[in-house]
């Protein structure tokens, strides 16, 4: 069905927040024929000299791409990104080991947040039934009437009315404040003890300083550094570590000592001067995790993106989950013929369990990225999962594949992963037990009558078991 030609009684949709999810949502609603007004508290980033705000590079994957495809700009955005086919693990001794993300040909894309946001705003603005309003800060709104009050660019207050208010205004959402005043609204905000700080790795002789088609990771158990490629041949390196560790580094010498101890191969690539300049330019930034439920109030307001579920950035799903919110809402609008009284509660019912499962997974993946990737058992399990997936593609699907390369519902992916884990772990135990029993039987049957072998010697004969322990 082509929604752009569908007759509509021109209901007014006010989208609060002109970031990634708000700008994308504007196109989704405009395509359906609604009158759309976007209100962004900051200036238009397409005109700004300096773009303020977060700049952690984004990893675009299948869910986000499907949402972009819906508004016709998937190919354009893909052409502006850099494919990353695998993680590249940097050991302390300088050794580099790739761990592919999925099957051959599967990759995630490193995309620039500001460029993507600019594109999405321009696509939305091209609809004649969309108006973008910048420097408009939401002061208050009414769940009963849809009346909204903004602080406008000229310093005066502006009032307007909307049939539907869509809060896409981030982790510290002004829209969500009304939800907090209502009964039976659950809300949780958690700051993790780790902060992040960004460093730039410049090009080398006009080219990338490292292999570009990888997400580079320096896992160091309690902290880590990652690097994502940019179109200008730089890498954006992000150091994630506990705030107390950041606070210990107060001088250039202490910083160099810390990097020589933990990331020695990165120093010549970033450059001593650039490292010191970037590290001390801004303090480490905090990472917040927000969950709430329900996502709607009456038939008047709904939250999407970080306003509903801000997550830590370690699974690369924050933006993808926000973009999929728009897709899911759109699918429910089709299902219930745009009746907000039915669509909004159904959206909460369907989407909240998925986003909450993803927020928890994002936290788990931080431990995987900074610590588990160092373990041989983790690498063995990755290999085993991928092999089993190759043999039984419908029965065993790696968690990362379900999350990143399919639209399997997040909470269903977690349930499937937990089941697979049980089955595979049990299989390994059975295989290990049978191997030991078999070895003992052969030893008793064919070995010397008087056993000259101790348990310790027998253990030394089974290097595979010791290898997996490491």
Strand order of the largest sheet: 6-5-14-15-16-13-17
Distance between the termini: 56 Å
- Global structural class: alpha/beta
Q: Based on CA inertia axes, which overall geometry fits?
A: globular
Strand content range: 15-25%
- Helicity level: 40-55%
Low-confidence stretches: 1-8, 464-470
Biggest sheet statistics: 7 strands, mixed
Q: Give the overall average pLDDT.
A: 86
Radius of gyration of CA atoms, rounded to a whole number: 26 Å
Number of helices: 17
Number of beta-strand segments? 19
Commentary on this structure:
This protein is of the alpha/beta class. It is 43% helix and 22% strand. It is built from 17 helices and 19 strands. The strands form 4 sheets. It has a 7-stranded mixed β-sheet. It has a 6-stranded mixed β-sheet with strand order 8-2-1-12-19-18. Strands 3-7-4 form a 3-stranded antiparallel β-sheet. Strand 5 and strand 6 form a beta hairpin. Helix 1 runs parallel beside helix 11. The longest helix has 37 residues, at 410-446. The radius of gyration is 26 Å and the shape is globular. It starts with 11 loop residues before the first strand and ends with a helix.
């Amino acid at each position: 069905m082509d929604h752009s030609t569908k007759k509509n009684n021109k209901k007014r949709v006010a989208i609060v927040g002109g970031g990634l999810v708000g700008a994308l949502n504007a196109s989704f609603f405009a395509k359906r024929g609604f009158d759309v007004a976007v209100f962004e508290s900051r200036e238009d980033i397409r005109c700004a000299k300096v773009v303020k705000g977060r700049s952690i590079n984004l990893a675009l994957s299948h869910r986000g791409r499907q949402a972009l495809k819906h508004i016709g700009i998937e190919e354009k955005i893909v052409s502006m990104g850099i494919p990353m086919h695998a993680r590249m693990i940097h050991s302390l001794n300088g050794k580099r080991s790739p761990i592919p993300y999925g099957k051959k040909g599967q990759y995630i894309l490193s995309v620039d947040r500001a460029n993507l946001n600019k594109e999405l705003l321009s696509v939305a603005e091209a609809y004649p039934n969309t108006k973008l309003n910048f420097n408009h800060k939401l002061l208050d709104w009414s769940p009963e009437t849809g009346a909204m009050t903004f602080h406008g660019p000229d310093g005066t207050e502006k009032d307007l009315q909307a049939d539907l208010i869509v809060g896409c205004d981030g982790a510290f959402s002004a829209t969500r404040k009304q939800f907090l005043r209502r009964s039976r609204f659950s809300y949780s905000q958690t700051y993790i003890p780790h902060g992040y700080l960004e460093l730039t790795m410049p090009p080398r002789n006009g080219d990338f300083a490292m292999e570009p088609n990888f997400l580079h990771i320096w896992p160091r158990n309690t902290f880590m550094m990652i690097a994502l490629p940019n179109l200008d041949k730089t890498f954006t390196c992000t150091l994630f570590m506990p705030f107390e560790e950041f606070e210990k580094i107060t001088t250039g010498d202490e910083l160099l000592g810390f990097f020589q101890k933990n990331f020695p191969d990165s120093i010549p690539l970033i450059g001593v001067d650039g490292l010191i300049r970037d590290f001390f330019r801004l303090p480490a930034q905090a990472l917040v995790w927000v969950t709430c439920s329900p996502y709607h109030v009456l038939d008047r307001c709904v939250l999407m993106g970080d306003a509903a579920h801000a997550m830590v950035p370690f699974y690369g799903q924050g933006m993808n989950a926000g973009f999929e919110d728009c897709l899911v809402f759109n699918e429910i609008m089709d299902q219930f013929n745009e009746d907000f009284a039915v669509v909004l509660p159904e959206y909460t019912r369907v989407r909240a369990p998925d986003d909450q499962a993803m927020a928890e997974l994002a936290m788990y993946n931080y431990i995987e990225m900074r610590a588990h990737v160092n373990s041989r058992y983790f690498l063995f399990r990755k290999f085993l999962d991928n092999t089993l997936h190759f043999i039984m593609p419908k029965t065993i699907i790696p968690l990362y594949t379900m999350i990143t390369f399919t639209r399997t519902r997040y909470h269903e992916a977690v349930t499937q992963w937990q089941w697979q884990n049980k089955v595979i772990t049990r299989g390994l135990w059975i295989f290990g037990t049978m191997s030991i029993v078999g070895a003992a039987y052969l030893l008793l049957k064919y070995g010397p009558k008087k056993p000259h072998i101790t348990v310790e010697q027998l253990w030394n004969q089974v290097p595979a078991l010791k290898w997996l322990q490491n």
